[in-house]
Amino acid sequence: MSRLIEMRVPDMGNFKDVAVIDVLVKPGDRVEPEAALVTLETEKATMDVPATAAGVVETVHVQKGGTINQGDLVVTVRSEEDVAAAAVAAVPAAASSAAAPPPAAARPPATAPPQPAAVAPPPAAAPVPAVTAAQATVPESPEALAPAPIDEAGFSRAYASPSVRKLARELGVDLGRVRGSGQKGRITAADVKAFVKQVLTGGAAAAAGGAALPAVPVVDFAAFGAVEVKPLGRIQRISSARLHASWVNLPHVTQFDEADITALEATREKLKGRAAKSGVKLTPLAFIMRACVRTLQQFPQFNASLDESRQNLVYKKYIHVGFAADTPNGLLVPVVRDADRKDIYELARALAELAAKARDGKLPAADMQGGSFTISSLGGIGGTAFTPIINAPEVAILGVSRASMRPVWQDGAFVPRLMLPLSLSYDHRVIDGALAARFTTDLAARLADPQALLEAVP
Ligand code: CAO
Fold first, then answer.
1. How far does CA 237 lie from the centroid of its chain?
2. How far is the CA of 99 from the centre of ligand 1 (A)?
């Protein structure tokens, strides 16, 4: 009995007279299940009709340039077993009649017909069970296994059948990055699975052309000496995830500069005592924040964020400045709201109150939200420069290190000046280097002029 399998156009929704833009097989070609037979094109997307079983193509019933509809015969394929049997008997198989019904096993299942690719690609934020599995098995470095976001254009251009596309979506695999091993470079289900395996075993960077992260090796530290394991605190866990997200998603550049704060410190010393009498500790940070506000007003791009689409910059009309606070529980970033409407004393008071709340573990979540720019001051501790990580989705952060007295060449002579190191990290997608240099130059000039910083806020 003949075992010819008819492969037909599956359910295509409402589409009629769909154009055949490519015929991918010819008589004599061996096909595997899911191999693409023809490519169809609607006005919205291209889709492939996949093979429903393995075998050798007997007849191709469609032509490139023609049109087809649901249920039309695409190819007739001789099943694998018959091909083998025919080879053994060395007898040409009789071309069977289309009237003979294919065996049930070879027929496309009636309840679950092969589906063409979705007409519109599903949203990029598809669930990513592969990563969940990775986190379950390799808890040491879960974020290292996070796949790169799917590039929709590359995904839709990839040469793969609808079922392989579906599989890729389910696993969060960007098809544009998978190398196909099938006919004419077609991506098979096995290629997608191999890609996932490669990512899970640490070959993500290679698999994704360097765009994903290779895993950090897991080391048995106890094999080298005594150890003690302590879980990270809640704040540390939250901040580590956020810092990591910023570090891997934002192209950071750090601009270094220094400000002459000799006059500023003299002024602060003069005013400190009086301020203390009214309960205000006038620290350098209050002056630095006031100067930042004035510079942010001059360069509003630094007080902005990219929107979700990353195609627009959201300029904030408010200036809420966060500052990194070192607390016994870890790093917190309280936010001074409407910093542009506060004078030096009001800023100093707000800084002291928020820092005290942060240290005492009494900072409400609302006091850490809505920041539009951040300052990280390590000046009270030490150091000459550092590269702060941007508090994303903000686009810039100012790092401040310890001021020191240095010889500065002025008017033909070296003079001792108190120099404050500034380290401005910025998101290079939004800010270019020239603008960053202008920002720190402006900031340094403002810090050199304390009288202007002391002026009342209009
Ligand atoms: N250069 C030299 N001295 C400085 C200085 C600077 N840049 N900044 C502050 N100082 C001095 C102050 O004048 C003060 O001295 P006096 O008591 O003699 O006046 C002393 O250092 C301590 O200052 P402070 O810490 O009380 O106040 P502050 O406003 O500088 O800082 C706060 C407040 C909350 C920012 C700070 O306590 C803090 O937590 N810093 C760490 C921030 C941090 O961890 N950043 C890294 C984040 S990324 O991991």
1. 19
2. 87
State the amino acid at position 125 in one-letter form. A
Ligand 1 atom with minimal separation from the 400 CA: 7
Pocket test for ligand 1, best of 283, 347, 401 (most atoms within 8 A of CB): 283
Cβ of 376 below 6 Å from ligand 1: yes
List the pLDDT tens digit at each of the 458 positions of the chain: 558 999 998 877 777 888 888 899 999 999 888 888 988 876 656 678 888 888 999 999 999 989 999 899 999 999 876 544 443 333 333 333 333 333 333 333 333 333 333 333 333 322 222 222 222 222 333 333 445 667 777 787 788 888 888 898 888 888 888 888 887 788 989 889 888 887 776 555 555 555 567 889 999 999 999 999 999 998 999 999 999 999 999 999 999 999 999 999 999 999 999 999 999 999 999 999 999 999 999 999 999 999 999 999 999 999 999 999 999 989 999 999 999 999 999 999 999 999 999 999 999 999 999 999 999 999 999 999 999 999 999 999 999 999 999 999 999 999 999 999 999 999 999 999 999 999 999 999 999 999 999 998 88
What is the model's pTM?
Answer: 0.62
Neighbours of 384 (CB within 10 A): 11
Q: Is 428 a catalytic residue?
A: yes
Q: Which helix (H) or strand (E) holds 84?
A: helix 80-89
Q: What CA–CA distances, in Å, run from 434 to 377, 407, 443?
A: 24, 27, 14
